Amino acid sequence: MKTIAVLTSGGDAPGMNAAVRAVVRTACENGIKVYGVVRGYNGLINGDFIEMDLRSVSDIINRGGTILYTARCAEFATEEGMRRAVRTCQEWGIEGVVVIGGDGSFRGARDLSERGIPCVGIPGTIDNDIACCDYTIGYDTCLNTIMELVDRIRDTTESHDRCSVIEVMGRRAGYLALNSGIACGATAILIPEVPFDIEKHVIERMKKTQRADKKHFIILAAEGVGIDVKALAEDIEKKTGVESRATILGHTQRGGYPTAKDRIMATRMGNYAVKLLMQDIGNRVVAAQKEEVLDYDIFEALNMKKSIDMNLYNVAHEVSI
Ligand code: F6P
Fold it and tell me: How many angstroms separate the CA atoms of 257 and 48, rounded?
């Protein structure tokens, strides 16, 4: 391949810039022209490209967000949008595309590959919900950010003998909630993968720990369980007598400079993706498993199911008493 493009799509994640940098630098080092596509698939449809060089990705390895901007593009999901994107790629001589994003972005990459533009996906999402990977770019940073934020809430929760009910991100997945719950010593963790009952899993647990002399509590809920944390805090206060507050961490979780792990894995994945395209291999997802970088067919990757580690869930429950 002589010319490729790189885009970021869906929710941004810390470490995406490190991946863009690795794609650009690997391409340049191997004599391949590389375009940065602005605002995800929108840019691919409209030809919003920036020709990148070694220096256009300087000083971004440490930055959160994405210098290429990102979007969720409804038009790309239509046949006409897809046709326009293919036409734009052909006009610009783009022979392969690296797509950094979540599973929605990978569906676009699969469809584009099927229409003759080979794509390689790199998992970039704080949710860690890509089935073929045990890690996605941004997850580690986000987890550490949540831990820091909850630690702050914990200081004031403890000082007032209160209960804090905290909602963390995770549209359909509980990895952030489960692991931050363990890292922050939450009394109860509510995640979409495990059915729960508020009376049994929150109220009774709190009462049990109260009897063991505990006076302040952190309850962590994944956004994906769809609970109104303010209403839950009121309910807890009424039933346990513990003054309660609710916090939705929201988008504070998604920004900030990436951790070493996110920078390193993003760099390895970006490099790996370009090496696939250099061999004319498309329709693949780069995956990380046990620190190893490998790749899967996109179609196969999208059909895989990711389950929660119940051992981890049980550990969380056993030690949170
Ligand atoms: O997919 C990443 C994510 O941060 C989810 O955890 C969250 O549900 C969603 O994106 C929020 O999207 P937006 O920034 O578009 O509101």
Answer: 27
